[in-house]
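pls design
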């Protein structure tokens, strides 16, 4: 089985590389995860070649019991995902009680899932519930204009959304519900994941103040497009503000 031709891995790797080219992933910044469909899990299961022990999660996610996820590895570079998915990614399974996980495939040269794993799983649990399972992707990057605006705009949903919705018509079409905003919290912390998951009840894109953007979507194209639209509108607003 040719790993690079498996559709969900190819789509994941393509998005990772395109996101890197956009400048959203300096060094090993950013992370992404995808909840596998049952058909994808079944087709890929012959390659589940690792027999790792169960690892305790820092959070409990019973709504994801038994689910499998394709996840970026901690310390891995987005630019390298397309070159070597088996080194930079891993597939994990959540235990039946939602308290632990184990690696089934990937990270062939060692490593662990993203340090933001708790945030991803908490948000997957919310989106799985509120979208009846349609939303499968969580994606976090460091778009410079979004981050810059979080230093100068009031960090609240109404203000941030209003300013970006004014920048171009596509914004109201792409994120009509607006943008969620969480205060500056420690990267990789449970608090960041919990705060984001509360916002994901109502929003598909959440600004991490002074840190970046966290988005969810049904497909890789929609998820990338949402992130891109928010950053494009932010870049326009930065220019507008600089002209005053």
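designed seq:
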């Amino acid at each position: 089985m040719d790993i690079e031709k498996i559709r969900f891995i190819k789509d994941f790797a393509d998005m990772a590389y395109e996101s890197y080219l956009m400048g959203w992933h300096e060094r090993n910044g950013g992370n992404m995860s995808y909840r596998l469909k049952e058909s994808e899990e079944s087709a890929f299961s012959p390659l589940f070649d690792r027999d790792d022990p169960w690892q305790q999660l820092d959070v409990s996610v019973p709504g994801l019991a038994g689910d499998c996820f394709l996840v970026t590895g901690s310390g891995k570079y987005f630019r390298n995902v397309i070159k070597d998915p088996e080194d930079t990614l891993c597939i994990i399974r959540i235990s039946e009680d939602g308290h632990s996980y184990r690696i089934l495939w990937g990270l062939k040269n060692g490593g662990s899932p993203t340090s933001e794993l708790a945030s991803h799983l908490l948000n997957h649990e919310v989106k799985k519930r509120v979208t009846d399972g349609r939303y499968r992707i969580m994606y976090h990057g460091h778009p410079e204009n979004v981050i810059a605006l979080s230093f100068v705009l009031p960090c609240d949903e109404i203000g941030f959304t209003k300013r970006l919705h004014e920048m171009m018509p596509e914004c109201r079409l792409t994120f009509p519900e607006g943008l969620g905003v969480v205060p500056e919290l420690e990267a990789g912390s449970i608090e960041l994941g919990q705060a984001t998951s509360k916002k994901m009840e109502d929003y598909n894109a959440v600004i991490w103040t002074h840190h970046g953007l966290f988005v969810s979507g049904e497909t890789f194209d929609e998820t990338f497009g949402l992130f891109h639209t928010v950053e494009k509108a932010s870049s326009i607003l930065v220019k507008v503000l600089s002209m005053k």
